[in-house]
Each structure stands twice: as C-alpha cells, then as structure tokens.
Amino acid sequence: xxxxxxxxxxxxxxxxxxxxxxxxxxxxxxxxxxxxxxxxxxxxxxxxxxxxxxxxxxxxxxxxxxxxxxxxxxxxxxxxxxxxxxxxxxxxxxxxxxxxxxxxxxxxxxxxxxxxxxxxxxxxxxxxxxxxxxxxxxxxxxxxxxxxxxxxxxxxxxxxxxxxxxxxxxxxxxxxxxxxxxxxxxxxxxxxxxxxxxxxxxxxxxxxxxxxxxxxxxxxxxxxxxxxxxxxxxxxxxxxxxxxxxxxxxxxxxxxxxxxxxxxxxx
Length: 267
Description:
This protein is an alpha/beta fold. It is built from twelve helices and nine strands.
C-alpha cells in the first residue's frame, strides 16, 4: 500500500497508520481524506491485520479541514451547487465512516492539536490515547459552520450529551487532562514516544485475542447503539452461533486444558 500523505506499516498483526501531511499539520484536504478512507478499507480486509493504530508524524494530530481548499471550492452561490455539496465533499465523510465501519479495532494516538475534522476522526475510533500537550476543539461554530462529519452523532456516545454540547457551543480548546476527565481519552502520556509505546502495548493485548471474536464484538457494539437491549443480545447470540464453529474456539479450549497461551489464527 502506497500513499502520498500516509505511512502504513504492519508488524505482528498491528497496523500503524501515520498521517504525514506535515506541512499543513494534517489538515484534511479531499485527497488526504480519500487516502485515509482507502487505507482503512484495505486494512479492514487484510487478514494479517488485527488492530490498527492511527497516529501523526506532524506536530499536530490534525488541524481540521483544509480551509484553503474548502474556500477555493466554494458553493458558487447557486442552488444546484449547494445541492451538490454532500457529493462534492464525500471523501471527508467517508474517511470517518470507514474508520468506524472498519472491522478491526482502531486506536487513535493523539499528539498536539486535534481540531474540528480531527475530532470527527478520533470520535470514529474505538479507543483514544493522547499526549500531555494534546488539545481538542470542536471548532465549527467558531468559523460559522455545523460539524457534519459525524462528530455530533458519535461524540455523545463517547462523552455524553452534556460535554459534547459544551464543546460544540463554546468551540474552545480542551487540554489533555480535561479530555481524560470527560472520558474522551483513556490515558494521557508525557510524550509521543511514551504514547506510541502505550498504544503498542494495548494493540498487542487486543491482537492476542481471537480475531473473529474481537471483530464480531465490535460489530455488535456498533450495531447496539441503534438497537434495544434484546435486539443487541439477539445479534450477539447469532454471532456466537457462527463462532461456535471456529477453530479459534477449539484452540481456546485446547490451550486451557494444556495450560498454555492460545495461538489464534482467525479461522
């Protein structure tokens, strides 16, 4: 996999996707967003990958939308152009959707600024970590827009309606400690190196489990946001009807009997 603004590596079932549009602090252009979407589509279908870590090589995680490109595109002042807005900017919406819908768990490792579209991206991830210098802002209200890449729908499921509304209405910057207190991030690290080590440890713990079970669990968790408890339980039961036939379940029983660590194959 070769990308212009991403570096992708895979080691021991963990994929590291590093955003590398460093000159613009990973501001989201349409081409950049399309690359992110494509990377997660490809990694989601790669049986070698069990967990994905999304990180940044720039001094910021993501500076939000590429406002220069957005302004240049414009809406041309016509009804036809305005109606074409969702299609014209589809890659921005797709990049978050592909992260959320990726069957593999995704860990966001956030350093520096995480603004606007960057917050959309991390809210689509399963787990979030950050450095002490990280700062989060839902900026759209400050530039006269409504956040429309999914953060207003996804973030309340992470931090609740109260904190989401505060972030959206104030558009202020929230430090790492505040993000931890809200539940936006699970852990705060002193620097990027420590954070990436922590992300690697967490990813390895996830990758050591039965891949099909982890993926099915993510599917049930995602679907259950829209289902009743009984409907969610029914979906989980149907997943288990399939998993009961898996080689990994047999391996789990065998390793228990033999008092050793299981060696799951995702079959």
